Amino acid sequence: MPHLPPFRRLLRYLGIMILSWLALSWFVVLVLRFVPPWTSAVIMERHVDALIHGEKDFQLRHHWVPWSRISPWAPIAMVAGEDQKFPFHHGFDFGSIETAIDAADDGKRLRGASTISQQTAKNLFLWNGRSFVRKGLEAYFTVLLEITWPKQRILEVYLNIAQFGDGVYGVGAASETFFRESPAQLSPAQAARLAAVLPNPDRFHVERPSGYVMERAAWIEQQMSQLGGPGYLQSRQPPRDVRTSRRR
Hints:
Elements: H1 6-32, H2 41-52, E1 61-62, H3 73-82, H4 94-105, H5 116-125, H6 132-148, H7 151-161, E2 163-165, E3 168-169, H8 171-178, H9 188-196, H10 211-227
Parallel strand pairs: 1-3
Antiparallel strand pairs: 2-3
Helix pairs in contact: 1-6, 3-9, 3-10, 5-6, 5-7, 9-10
């Protein structure tokens, strides 16, 4: 093999590193389709932050609960409150993104337009923040999830790593902490209240719900009914009047 100049050797090494990272990241996503993740990047970030700042009262509560042991009202509550087009999009809701941009251009507060798939990718693999690098990686992992996992797996992982309170991650820990119930026993109202705090679980509280949280929970429960309940997640065609709820 002829001797390559330093610049071309550098490009070659960079190319090998990038391809290796792409292969490794896809392999990890493939494995996690079948193996429950024991933690997530966001959970680890919060745990490390508590250790660094000496939060002696911090308690991490999180454990995996398989889909079969989760109340059917929990998944539809998350979809009704966060991403009503989840069964039908391919990871990105471009209509909601356009609406959010138009609202920002009109001087209104910028609303989130992340789908459940995007939130799962961010919570599982990335860190909190709004940099372009993080958003780019979020889009990359969202595409990997959508082409590698079925929708039910995405929602199952989301339910198990979403934050519902300080140190409380996943529907299993949340139902046991706030309702003294197993996740299989969650009622529609309880599932709706869990979903109601997802816009900001550091500000909103399941155990001490504000008027806003209770109002939002009632709206989510109404949406769950209008969508057709748990059966909506097996739908093949979205209803004509389906709307996408976004973080408010």
